[in-house]
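Repro:
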Amino acid sequence: MLQLKLRTPEETMAFAKRVASFLVPGTVLTLSGDLGAGKTIFTKGLAKGLGIQEMVNSPTFTIIKEYRSGRLPLFHMDVYRITDEEDIGIEDYYEENGVTVIEWAENIPSWLPDNYLQIKINRAGENARELVLMAQGEEAGRLCREIEKNEDTCN
């Protein structure tokens, strides 16, 4: 587990941009936090780090947005309105050799893969956020250790 405190949305984006440098095909990240906590801000930074050129915004109403202009494709999902009983084909994206980011993944635990990095974003002030990274599985553990090893360069 890794905990970080970031003071501004720009710091959150910069951290996510650095995280992108450690991502490999098939990486799954889950993001949780209250509405407005910064899940989409984090994803925007991740997209920048992957070299994605398109405008990244919340997939709240479309559920899934695909971005393919970067070094790896990014599949950004918001499953806030989805339940564990609904099959939206999410597991198909795990096979796409890209990066899958799932907001509100706690709503669909049975659809999550064995390996993913869970990122909880908590408010720690008006603009400050605390990020808690927890690995689920061996590959996610490797990713978390790599991020932690380089944490000082991420701030």
